Amino acid sequence: MAIGETIRNSQIWKSIFRHPMPLDRRNRIVVMLTNFFLHLHPVSIKKQGIALSFTWCMGGVTFFLFLVETVTGVLLMFYYRPTLEWAYNDILALRDVTSLGILRELHRWGAHAMVITTWLHMYRVFLTGSYKPPREFNWVIGVILLLLTLLLSFTGYLLPWDQLAIWAITVGSNMARATPILGYEGPGQQLLTIGGIDMITDGSDARFGLLGARFVGEETLNRFYVLHCIAIPLATSLLLAIHFWRVRKDGGISGPL
Amino acid sequence: MHSNGFFLKDVAGFLGGYYAFIAIMNGVASLILWRRKNQLGWAFVWAAVAGVMLILASLALSGSATLVPSLPLAARKLVNALSGPVLYTLGTTALLTVLFVFRKFFVKPMVAWTVLNALLILMGLSMADENFASIVMKPDNVPIVGLVFMLAFFTWVATSQAVVNDERIKQGLPPMEKLNDEKVLVWPDLVYTELICMVAVSAFLLVWALVLQAPLEEPASSVKTPNPSKAPWYFLGLQEMLVYFDPWYAGVVLPSMVVFGLMAMPYLDFNKKGNGYYSIEERKFSYLVYQFGFFELWITLIILGTFLRGPNWNFFGPFEYWTPYKVEVLNNVDLPQFFWVNLLDRPLPRAPQGAGTLVQVGTILLRESPGLILLGAYLVLLPPLLAVTVFRQFFAKMGFVRYMIMANLMLLMLSLPLKMILRWTLNLKYIVSIPEFSLNF
Ligand code: HEM
Question: What does CATH list as the number for A54-249?
Fold first, then answer.
């Protein structure tokens, strides 16, 4: 193809892609080393490590779902305002008015799917004993990622501001009220008394810290929105980077010695 | 409960497609086996199943109460009457145990395929029940149905490889994974696999998004409490634990311990075998502990909490209508009550009016002494006792600190099933109950 050839030989193309097309062995190696997105991978890998029956590609699918959530999430942010006045109506409009309303379905089902694939990935890592030395610490990072995934889903659950949302978050966050010592109704909360003044009240306990109020209300919506759209995704991205880096540094996908 | 007329018309299309899907699935299986030539018998079986499924599909499409395939009403009533938290828990335990013990049998492709078909057909028949369908088809519950099938599938994938590897290791051969250790280039082998995975996942997600609308209920109202009020589905296992424990334990301490235990796991499992390949025999202890925690104490509780817990968190059979008026008699008793009143036939110790703090605390301790002694024995005496008996080798290999952490984590994990059993058999509510400090256990 002459046109293709011309494009690939142009200065613009060459300035973007630092390597020729990966058609022969040499260039297939070069591409892995010189492309930003591909350099996450090694150049070559044991056949066993890429067998679908071994990894189920589950970590990869989880990561892909995280990307899908990021993209659809950013787009949804254009349509959604986290206030009592607008939150519900904006979601309603996504269903009834907005032509790209399917974004919400993609985002919600993608979130459910990500929780499931994270569990499955962890299950696979357990079943192949891949948490054993030298990968112990990557497993620990994984557990934190699991927590962050659940928190992402939990904080997002509130945003539609419908009955399903606020009551699920109410039930979930009521637990924090019972935190030992730090919860208003938790065992031992009487211990934190200074000069006869009870430090742990329903306006200062763990649940209040979580909700920003005594019940799930406007402050909670704002708090969960910020956590959901900024804080937790940032933390997750950082840990994912470490997770992937460790997969490489720990000797690649595990396998029998 | 309700008349079936409209409902069946609504699900007819879904069920028709569903059975047609099972038919295609079996047709493909039959074709593959037929082309391989060595299992012609099975090829015919699956072809026949496909035929039957096509008939079921057309019956389902009729949408008429007499034709749509469903479980007999009497059978549904029986299931409802029999089911309860006890039978559910014991039943799932028995089922998982059978699957584990006879895993060599169940991983055979034809057996697994039969089980899959049976499950799918049972599911289809149940979906013709309005009460069942109304819970299972709730948009946010659909993922759990998916989770169940995915878990079954991947457990099969893993177990079939583990069974083969265990057999090979017994014969002194390396695991199958070892045979595949020549190196290949990541481009194209891995990069293309990833691309295909991404396309497949995107397609799957798009279809899901097109077919199933995301739920949106009435606007939030802090005065209208729905009954039941449920946490998001992945936390329903925790919510189910609230039946047996107070929130401080079920909702805070136990989950924290789960997270801590998961993180500690790689440092507690000193078994060097089974690293990097599927195996069960080589790491039976850790395998069983993990599976018990994951399936028994997490997944089955989520299913229970989602599908079988209705208004007031009462238990409902799978085909039962979720009436808010179901009343369950609760006459649970605390351990001090058992001990002082029922056993010793005397009132609970009570501090005299206006007693000092010390006397009050002393009285509480006396009152709760049976439970405290029991708990102390469980958490303090049991670990060393186990260290010199069943876990002697573990103790020797792990050293004091690691062993104690493992033993305590295991005992905390077992606290849930133990409390369940105590509740079912003795109606025991709390072992220790100190409302003065909001400390009930
Ligand atoms: C947001 C969630 C997560 C993502 C996106 C993710 C992604 C990945 C990916 C892409 C891999 C490469 C191998 C594979 O695909 O299986 C991997 C490996 C690994 N993951 Fe994760 N992971 C996540 C959560 C977890 C969790 C929850 C755990 C365990 C508690 C975990 C532990 C590990 C370990 C130990 C490895 C190395 C496995 C081996 O070498 O065989 N990860 N992860």
Answer: 1.20.810.10
